[in-house]
Specification:
Elements lengths: L1 E3 L5 E3 L16 E6 L4 E8 L6 E8 L2 H14 L3 E7 L13 E2 L5 E2 L3 E4 L5 E7 L8 H4 L2 E2 L10 E5 L6 E5 L4 E8 L6 E4 H6 L4
Antiparallel strand pairs: 1-2, 3-4, 4-5, 6-10, 7-8, 9-10, 11-15, 12-13, 12-15, 13-14
Length: 201
């Protein structure tokens, strides 16, 4: 089923949010409308990052757009895992127990113990795959290392802690551009004029 947004564009209006691509959690929900522009967003407490840091996709005109964007992001993200291998299951003996803590001393669950079937056990840790923004081909995203240093306005991926959103960046403020949720440190940018046009530079 489809609907139209404020600009008349067709939007998938399914109300079902897909699970988080990083931790597999299904406690994903929409919020809104909020703020001056009455925008919608999607929030989820992801277990992959520091035991449950909030992550959000925000800045959409309708709830249907927020859901469609979240579902597109989750369906195109590749899940990766790290396997830490031990010679036995978790237990009090040295070499068989892993405890991870945050800087403030809180315990963190990083993964799941799995019997590999070959006499070894592995702590399987989910990690986020570094991905280029989904619309890279359309608007010509570039590595942040190539960003101009002459004061040219650019659209950047901003990642304070693990709250990662694409934003318009002004002199002293940040505003969601399209709410596309991204992972990893700030690594991509585009000239703001090309972003506004939605075409390659």
């Amino acid at each position: 089923m489809t609907d139209t947004n404020e600009t008349g564009a067709s939007v998938d209006v399914t109300r079902e949010l897909l699970p988080c691509p990083f931790c597999g959690g299904n406690r994903v929900k929409t919020f809104g409308p909020y703020g001056w522009y009455r925008q919608w967003g999607v929030s989820h407490s992801c277990k992959t990052f520091y035991g449950g840091t909030q992550e959000m996709a925000q800045g959409f005109a309708t709830e249907a757009e927020a859901i469609a964007a979240w579902n597109t992001r989750t369906s195109t993200t590749q899940a990766l895992t790290i396997h830490i291998v031990f010679d036995g299951p978790p237990g009090p003996e040295a070499g068989r127990f892993v405890e991870c803590e945050t800087s403030d001393g809180k315990s963190v669950s990083f993964g799941e113990w799995t019997d590999r079937g070959d006499g070894y056990w592995a702590l399987v840790v989910p990690v986020a795959a570094p991905t280029q923004p989904a619309d890279a081909a359309r608007v010509n995203w570039q590595p942040i290392a190539k960003a101009p240093k002459d004061g040219t306005q650019i659209l950047v991926e901003v990642a304070p802690d693990v709250l990662n959103i694409v934003s318009w960046w002004g002199e002293a403020w940040r505003e969601p551009a399209n709410g596309l949720a991204l992972k990893d440190a700030p690594t991509w940018f585009i000239d703001i004029r090309a972003a506004l046009k939605g075409t390659p530079q």
